[in-house]
């Protein structure tokens, strides 16, 4: 079945009348990964994938703003089992095409159901089953499914609403206000003055991609972000293709090289942050000139990799600024006025269009109402085992990927763990599994560490997320090199796992 044939009006879900072995929530990069590993490693298991959007893609289906592209290289953001053959930083269209090929090549189309949103899920210890209710977005039709295992792949932010601060006077503004998650189709911004509020990857993508058509575009930031300007090409990949090396080999070689480079760079950021700062600023200076005020506009107060490092493929943001078609203003918003934004410095930043590239609205566990044996689950009262399983919640795994490395690296590690866990449960004839903290005296903390990785959306949403523990396996690691070995060595008969 062609994956496109299920898009739009999907009634097939109502025809499922048997208990599924696994129900996957989300058909983005993680959900397609989960489905593929089930198909290959657990060919006898029945499963379904639900997504409330009209097609697969997740982030790459939601976001339609000009120039939308990856902020990770596709050799590691792509799957280990499917070679990536394009440039390392790819457009949303290229990523969705890659995901569509994955669906087709693994015959996953019949298992994916679009336009269905999961509203609630309840675990019954008596039956050792999840009962899940899904609602058809277009019609309000409801269907209940039963599944032995629930695999949450819906991501971590709310696709239906981005985060926009409540600025004074916003309703007084006489122009258009757009969040990048809700970019209007065929929106005409030519010849208009645009202000993009924000300094992360979204702002860095938007600014150079609208600069040629707007009258002028200003990136308004409260504080700077660290940017890495680099060529959108992997030299070794080009060399190997010229030698007509098989793409599978190229993918594996380049993937390993990028992983080593990323590990070494992250280590350098923590061990010699001043050296990394100097290198990043020197790249900016070469593009913007010696007279540009780098101290104000491109020198953050935090060390590199304390927040995500934004990539600038081929230096396009710097080039747009150097050309005079784009500019950066570092200031605080006092209020909105009819003609633009009044800054704390007193300056009126004139605008016809304001784009609020101000981040995500954290949405842990898909806004689904969870219950276990009739009792509502508050995930903030649970403790996360390796950031994927939670005390008191049986037969559930949640995919939270990496932030310092490509998200998909962790999605694949988790997928390999889940298929191994399902096989172990089948072998020991266990109907349920739930993690438990062996040491009741272990100290507990909020999910995100302020002195480690602390983007605003995580810090704003701590109350929605599980607790972490003082011991390593009760934390969310950002170290792929450690986890790839640790996950493979997890003892499924350890005291952490309680089977029923």
UniProtKB/TrEMBL annotation:
Single GO MF annotation: N,N-dimethylaniline monooxygenase activity
Obligatory cofactor(s): FAD
Entry keywords, A to Z: FAD, Flavoprotein, Monooxygenase, Oxidoreductase
Chloroplast as UniProt keyword: no
InterPro entries reported for this sequence: FAD-binding_MO, FAD/NAD-bd_sf, Flavin_mOase-like
Pfam families documented for this protein: FMO-like (PF00743), NAD_binding_8 (PF13450)
Flavoprotein keyword on record: yes
Family label: Belongs to the FAD-binding monooxygenase family.
Protein name, entry field: Flavin-binding family monooxygenase
Organism from which the protein derives: Primorskyibacter flagellatus
Lineage: Bacteria, Pseudomonadati, Pseudomonadota, Alphaproteobacteria, Rhodobacterales
């Amino acid at each position: 079945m062609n994956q496109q044939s299920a898009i739009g009006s999907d009634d097939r879900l109502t025809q499922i009348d048997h208990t599924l072995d696994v129900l996957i929530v989300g058909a983005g990069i993680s959900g397609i990964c989960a489905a593929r590993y089930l198909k290959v490693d657990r060919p006898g298991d029945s499963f379904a994938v639900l997504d409330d959007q009209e097609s697969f893609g997740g982030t790459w289906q939601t976001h339609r703003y000009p120039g939308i592209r990856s902020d990770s290289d596709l050799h590691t953001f792509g799957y280990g089992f499917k070679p990536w053959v394009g440039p390392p930083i790819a457009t949303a269209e290229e990523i969705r095409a890659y995901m569509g090929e994955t669906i087709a090549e693994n015959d996953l189309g019949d298992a994916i159901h679009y336009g269905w949103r999961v509203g609630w899920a309840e675990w019954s210890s008596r039956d050792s089953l999840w009962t899940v209710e899904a609602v058809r977005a277009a019609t309000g039709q409801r269907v209940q499914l039963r599944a032995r295992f629930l695999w949450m792949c819906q991501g971590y932010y709310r696709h239906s609403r981005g985060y926009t601060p409540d600025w004074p006077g916003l309703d007084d503004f006489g122009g258009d206000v757009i969040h990048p998650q809700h970019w209007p189709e065929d929106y005409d911004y030519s010849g208009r003055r645009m202000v993009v509020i924000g300094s992360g990857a979204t702002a860095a993508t938007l600014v150079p991609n609208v600069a040629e058509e707007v009258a002028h575009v200003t990136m308004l930031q409260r504080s700077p972000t660290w940017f890495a300007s680099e060529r959108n090409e992997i030299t070794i990949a080009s060399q190997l293709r010229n030698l007509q090396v098989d793409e599978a080999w190229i993918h594996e070689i380049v993937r390993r090289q990028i992983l080593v480079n990323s590990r070494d760079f992250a280590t350098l950021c923590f061990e010699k942050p001043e050296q990394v700062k100097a290198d990043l600023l020197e790249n900016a200076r070469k593009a913007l000139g010696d007279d540009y005020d780098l101290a104000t506009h491109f020198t953050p107060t935090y060390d590199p990799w304390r927040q995500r490092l934004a990539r600038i493929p081929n230096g396009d943001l710097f080039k747009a600024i150097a050309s005079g078609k784009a500019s950066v203003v570092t200031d605080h918003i006092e209020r909105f006025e009819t003609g633009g934004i009044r800054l704390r410095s007193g300056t009126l930043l004139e605008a016809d269009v304001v784009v609020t590239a101000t981040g995500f609205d954290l949405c842990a566990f898909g806004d689904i109402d969870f219950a276990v044996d009739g009792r509502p689950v508050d995930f903030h009262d649970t403790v996360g085992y390796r950031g994927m399983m939670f005390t008191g919640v049986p037969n559930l795994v949640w995919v939270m990927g990496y932030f310092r490395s490509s998200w998909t690296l962790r999605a694949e590690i988790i997928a390999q763990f889940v298929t191994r866990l399902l096989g172990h449960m089948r072998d020991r004839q266990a109907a349920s599994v739930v993690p438990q903290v062996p040491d009741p005296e272990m100290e507990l903390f909020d999910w995100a560490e302020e002195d480690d990785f602390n983007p605003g959306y995580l810090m704003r949403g701590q109350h929605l997320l599980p607790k972490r523990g003082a011991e390593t396996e009760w934390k969310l690691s950002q170290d792929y090199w450690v986890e790839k070995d640790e996950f493979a060595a997890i003892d499924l008969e350890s005291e952490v796992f309680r089977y029923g």
